[in-house]
Amino acid sequence: MESNKRCSFLRSIINKLSLKGALMLGSVILLLVVVSLILRWIGKSNSLYIEENKRIDLTPTLIKSIEEIGEWEFLQLTDEELVDTIKHGFFGDSRLVRIYYGTLRLGFNLHEAEPGWLKQDKDTLRLMLPPIRLLDKDFIDEARTKAFYESGSWTEADKQALYDRAYKLMMQRCITPANIQTARRNACLQMESMMRSMGFGAVKATFAQPER
């Protein structure tokens, strides 16, 4: 009988120890789960504030380097003009017919940009571009000029007058409001694309006023 009491006592001790161990083990597991959740939440929270800064600062040095580009062509126009002239003489008429070839380039010169033409306005980079103009006034290729027909004698002054007429015709044919507008549109697109490639996000390029 005494032996049975001892067994019962030992069994009760073991049961108590098992229950206590189970509670402790459960507490440890619960603690590990809570710690894991906290660490995961902290990791996610930190990721919200970690962002790589790829934006380029708009500094005077950067603006100066862009201005150093100078002339920038946005539209090229090729033209040819057939021009003739006649001189009436006592012994008959003299006639001169020439064909002139020209390449007219429309664009702007960043050296002519107004102070403050490039500035940051909140989240938008704004560009106020200089006016579109004819980049090279010597656009007639005299090496390609052809004498289509020539009779009689002609002075250098006569040939210069013919050249001047061809020059004026090319200007009238190519320097039109429509072509200037096309050059302006190309300029805005290319300048905005260039600035975006440098790391700027929202970019808006405009002109101060329409070219005449």
From TrEMBL:
InterPro entries: DUF4230. It comes from the Bacteria. Pfam families: DUF4230. The chain crosses the membrane at residues 21-42. Keywords: Membrane, Transmembrane, Transmembrane helix. This is DUF4230 domain-containing protein. It comes from Segatella maculosa OT 289.
